[in-house]
Automatic annotation (TrEMBL):
This is Uncharacterized protein. It comes from Candidatus Marsarchaeota G1 archaeon OSP_C. It comes from the Archaea.
Length: 93
């Protein structure tokens, strides 16, 4: 039986996000909704310590994910151009 005080993992549904441009938006909305729920319910269900712990645990992961997304965005045009040139040449990738 799960505790009502358990803070959900915001990365749980990340595989459902299909477009790279939507990852940041999805992640921001997920974190914002958890933060909002936590602040509203903190007086009743969630102690402030758990909210601070959640923030400290996931802040570095969120930062790393944002760095990865930025690097990926920089490489997408190159990969598309490579795929287009291979297709024009008749090569199969």
């Amino acid at each position: 039986m799960e505790s009502k005080n358990k803070i959900p993992n915001p990365f749980r549904d990340l595989s459902k996000v299909s477009l790279f441009e939507e990852i940041e938006k999805w992640l921001f909305n997920k974190i914002a909704s958890i933060s909002f729920d936590a602040s509203v319910k903190s007086a009743f269900l969630l102690p402030i310590k758990k909210i601070k712990l959640f923030s400290s645990l996931y802040s570095s992961k969120i930062f790393e994910l944002k760095k990865f997304i930025c690097k990926l965005r920089m490489h997408i045009p190159f990969m598309l151009e490579l795929a287009n040139s291979c297709t024009r040449e008749g090569l199969v990738v």
